[in-house]
């Protein structure tokens, strides 16, 4: 079979065989990377360096088809993204997510043919969502949430329409799914996107899958809480039920989780400065530790998972009640504004 390089791939894709199948989407300013958009099917995008003479290395916005001649498939981490890749992909759901090596011209042709397959179907409203579809929705949500936090402009409708083109549901279906994702974020004690009020009609299993996909999309892994919280979210409804047996010997599970390395100097400074008074409610700490020091906790106003700094301008000393309210309270946004207005050392990141 004919081996292929970036140089020969650019020539091949310019031939009549792909005239009505591909669109050369963007050439970046330096012409180092070219991006192609596929007209049909999932309207996927891929990009490569058209000047490479020692192989063909392609970035994809979706998992590349596993056909003969496609090797070294890698899912990219957030740290693998680059400005050049951001420029050549069209944005939204179309970003570099995977990289693979294409060994032959035949393999490239089969990759494009597979991406052209029309996976869009006429979904019924209650038809179950595939993991691929859920993951695409979560990736879109995480991307919008990042822009919201960084105060970057974006249009939700564009994301919904993009998902609709890929999978065939209505844009409104994806808007409502985003509200389910907001609900999972709220169960995790994290901020959700304004305008996408949490919608609770999601089962424990799907909530758990969404939480796992959020961890994957963000690149941080924490102990799962969503499935458990869904099952206890309405305790008032359980008052008429029989007393549960519970677990005499609870099951133990081990998992790998993400930990941020925090500065003990910052914690000591903030707690010392507070002098035992909660910087949120202005009341004394509710109890003392064994060593006699008042018990307060240090809270990051912009979470470390959201790119917040571990500094005295982003941290406050709070009592356990206020700490939980800053994570889970319905009025936490207003509470946060009050804190910024009265604690002068803080800087809104």
Structural topology:
Layout lengths: L5 H8 L8 E6 L6 E5 L6 E4 L7 E5 L9 E6 L7 H6 L9 E5 L2 H12 L14 H19 L6 H12 L3 H17 L16 H15 L7 H6 L32 H11 L22 E4 L14 E4 L1 H9 L3 H11 L7
Descriptive terms for the model:
349 residues, elongated, six-stranded antiparallel beta sheet
Strand content: 5-15%
Total strands: 8
Question: Can you tell me the overall shape?
Answer: elongated
Q: What do the pLDDT scores average to?
A: 87
The N- and C-terminal alpha carbons lie at a distance of 55 Å
Largest sheet: 6 strands, antiparallel
Spatial strand sequence of the major β-sheet: 1-2-3-4-6-5
Please mark out the parts with pLDDT under 50 across 5 or more consecutive residues, or reply none: 118-126
Structural class: alpha+beta
Tell me what you see in this structure:
The chain has 349 residues and is α+β, with helices and mostly antiparallel strands. The protein is built from 11 helices and 8 strands. The strands form 2 sheets. It has a 6-stranded antiparallel β-sheet. Strands 7-8 form a two-stranded antiparallel sheet. A hairpin with a 6-residue loop joins strand 1 (22-27) and strand 2 (34-38). It is elongated, with a radius of gyration of 25 Å.
């Amino acid at each position: 079979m004919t081996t292929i390089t970036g140089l020969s791939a650019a020539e091949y894709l310019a031939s009549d065989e792909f005239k009505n199948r591909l669109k050369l989407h963007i050439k970046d300013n330096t012409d180092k990377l070219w991006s192609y958009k596929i007209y049909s099917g999932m309207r996927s995008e891929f990009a490569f360096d058209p000047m490479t003479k020692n192989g063909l290395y392609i970035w994809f916005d979706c998992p590349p088809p596993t056909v003969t001649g496609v090797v070294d498939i890698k899912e990219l981490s957030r740290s693998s993204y680059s400005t050049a890749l951001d420029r050549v992909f069209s944005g939204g759901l179309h970003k570099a997510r995977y990289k693979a090596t294409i060994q032959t011209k035949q393999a490239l042709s089969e990759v494009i043919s597979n991406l052209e397959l029309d996976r869009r179907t006429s979904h019924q409203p209650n038809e179950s969502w595939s993991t691929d579809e859920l993951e695409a929705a979560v990736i879109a949500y995480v991307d919008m949430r990042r822009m919201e936090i960084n105060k970057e402009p974006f249009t939700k409708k564009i994301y919904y329409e993009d998902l609709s083109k890929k999978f065939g549901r209505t844009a409104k279906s994806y808007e409502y799914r985003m509200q389910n994702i907001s609900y999972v974020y709220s169960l995790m004690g994290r901020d959700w996107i304004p305008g996408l009020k949490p919608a609770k009609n999601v089962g424990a299993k799907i909530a758990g899958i969404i939480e796992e996909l959020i961890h994957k999309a963000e690149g941080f892994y924490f102990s799962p809480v969503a499935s458990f919280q869904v099952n206890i979210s309405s305790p008032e409804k359980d008052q008429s039920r029989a007393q549960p047996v519970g677990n005499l010997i609870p099951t133990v599970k081990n998992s790998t989780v993400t930990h941020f390395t925090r500065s003990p100097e910052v914690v000591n400074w903030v707690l010392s400065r507070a002098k035992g008074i909660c910087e949120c409610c202005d009341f004394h700490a509710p109890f003392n530790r064994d060593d006699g020091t008042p018990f307060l906790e240090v809270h990051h106003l912009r979470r470390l998972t959201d790119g917040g700094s571990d500094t005295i301008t982003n941290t406050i000393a709070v009592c356990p009640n206020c700490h939980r309210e800053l994570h889970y309270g319905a009025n936490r946004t207003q509470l946060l504004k009050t804190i910024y207005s009265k604690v002068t050392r803080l800087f809104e990141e």
